[in-house]
Amino acid sequence: MLKIETWKLAVVGILCALGFAFAAPNLLNSDTAGALPDFLPKSQINLGLDLQGGSHLLLEVEVGVVVKERLESLVDAIRTELRKERILYGGLGASATGVNVTIKNAAEAEKAYDIIRKLDVGFETNLGDSGHIVMNLTEQALKERRVAAVEQSIEIVRRRVDPQGIKEPTITRQGDDRILLQVPGEDDPEKLKKLLGQTAKLTFHLLDDKGSLADAMAGRVPPGSMLLPSVDEYDSLGKPRMYLLKKRVAVSGDTLVSASLGFDQGNRPAVNFRLDAVGGKKFADITRQNLGKPFAIVLDKKVISAPTIQGIIPGGSGQITSGSFTTESAKELSLLLSAGALPAPLTVLEERSVGPGLGADSVEAGKIASIVGLVLVVAFMIIYYGRLGVFANIALAMNMVLIVALLSAFGATLTLPGIAGIVLTIGMAVDANVLVFERIREELRTGRGVMSAVDAGYKRAFGTIMDANITTLIAAALLFAFGSGPVQGFAVTLAFGIMSSMFTAIWVTRILVSIWLRRTRPTTLIV
With left for phi above 0 and alpha for psi between -120 and 50, is residue 33 left, alpha or beta? Predict the structure, then answer.
C-alpha cells in the first residue's frame, strides 16, 4: 500500500496536469482564450441551444422530387432505346410512381418489354394487352430512395452550415423525411433558411438550335428539350429571357470537386470551378465537338449564362460568370457548389429563435444546483469519514476539473440535461470512495493494522467499483447511440463523469492516502 510505482505516479500527475491545462481556457473570455499561443489548449465548452439561445429549424425533404427526376430520366432512357431500335410507341410518360408507354406494333411489344425492363432495377415491369407497358417503383426501391435522399440531405446541410464558423450545430433525422437543425449562437433563422434554400444543382446543357423558341414558349416544347428562364436577362417586357435547351445533361455538377470565388477578365466577380477526371474529359469532349455553339450553365433550372464555346477547354477547369454576381453572391454560390447539391428541396416546417434569456436562467439554476450539491457532498464526506473524507473531496474537485477538460478537449456541447448529468456525477463521484472506506472500516474491525486495512480496502472494493461504473457507462453509451439532442448531451456528461470519477476515486485518492500514511504512519485510523 505504501509503495506506488513511479510510472503510476507519473501517469496520474500527467493526466491531472493535462486536466488543468484543458480546463483553464474556460476561466477566460473567448477573445482571450482565442489569443493564446497555438501550443496551448484554447478550446472552451460549447454551450447548447438551450443554454446560449440560437435557431431551431425543422426541415422536410421533398423526396417526391427525387422520385420524379428518376422517372423523368427513365422516360428519356426509354425514348432513346425505342428510337434506337426503331420501335413505334405512344403515350410515353411518368405517373406518380411509374412510367407508362404503349407499343403501337403488337409484334414488337415483347422485344420492347425486354429492352425496357433491363433499363433499371427497382422497378416492377408488366406487359399488358395492346402493347401497354407499365414500370412501377417497388416499395423497397421507393423506401431506399427516400432514405438515401434524407441521408444525403443531412450531409449536405452539415457541409453548408459548418463552414459558417458556427459551433456544434445539431443535425438529426426526424421520422422518414424530416431533419432537425439546431444552431446555438445563431439568432437569425433567415440566414440559415437562405443558406439551405437553394438546391444548388449545377448542370451544363447544349442549346437546342433546331427547335423553335417561339413554339416552345407557346407550349410546344420539342421532345428531349426544355424551356428554362435566365437568372439575370430580361426581355423588353421585363420578363426573364427564355432558353430552349437540350434536356440531356452534357456535364453534371456531380463531377465538381471544387469551387471558389474568382474574377473574370473585366475584374467582375465570378466562380472558378474544377471537375474531376471524368467530368473534365466530358467537358473537353463537349467543347471539342461543339465549337461555336452556345453552352448553357444551369443552376437549379435557371440559366446563369450561355456563352459560345470559343475553344476546347481541357483539364476540367472553368469559370461561371454572370452580370448579377456580386463578390458576396459569387462567394455564396462557390460555397454552395463546394458543399454539393441537395438531392431535393428542403421545406421549412417549423422555425424558432431561442433567446439567450432562457439559457441564462438555466445556467444560473444549474450553477446553484451544482454548488448546493457540491457543498452537501463535501460536508457529508468530512463529517462521516474525517480525514479520508477530505481526500475524497480533493478527488471530487479533480473530477470536476477533468469533466470540464474532457468537454472542452472533445468539443462536446453542454446542454441543460448535460448540467443535470454533471450534478448527478457530483453525487456519484464519491460512491467509489464510500465503497473503499466501508471496506477499510470492515478490515479495521477485524483487528488489522492501519496499513494492511487500507491496502485490503482498496483491493476488495476495486471489483465492485468497476462492475457498478461499467454498467452505468454502458447505459450512457446506449443513450448516446440511440438518443438525440438533449439525451445525447446528458449521456456525454454522464460518461465523462463516470470515467473521470473512476480515475480520481481509485488512483488520486489512493496516492493521497498513501503519501499521508508514509509521512505520518498512524497507529489508529478513524473512518
Answer: alpha
Q: How far is CA 43 from CA 40, 404, 408, 491, in A?
A: 9, 11, 6, 21
pLDDT 10s digits, 317-366: 888 877 777 888 888 788 778 777 888 889 999 888 776 665 667 677 77
The sign of the torsion formed by the CA atoms of 423, 427, 430, 431 equals negative
Residues 347/65, Cβ–Cβ less than 8 Å:
no
Q: How far, in Å, CA of 312 to CA of 361, rounded?
A: 64
Mean confidence (pLDDT) of the chain: 84
pLDDT tens figures, 395-438: 989 999 999 999 888 877 788 788 888 878 877 778 888 888 88
The pTM assigned to this predicted structure is: 0.64
Q: Which residues contact 70 (CB under 8 A, 6 or more apart)?
A: 145
pLDDT of residue 358: 58
Plot region of 349 (φ>0 → left; ψ -120 to 50 → alpha; else → beta): alpha
> Distance (Å, rounded) from C-alpha 410 to C-alpha 499?
14
CB 279 within 8 A of CB 252: yes
> Grid coordinates representing 195?
443558406
The bridge status of strand 346-354 relative to strand 54-61 is antiparallel
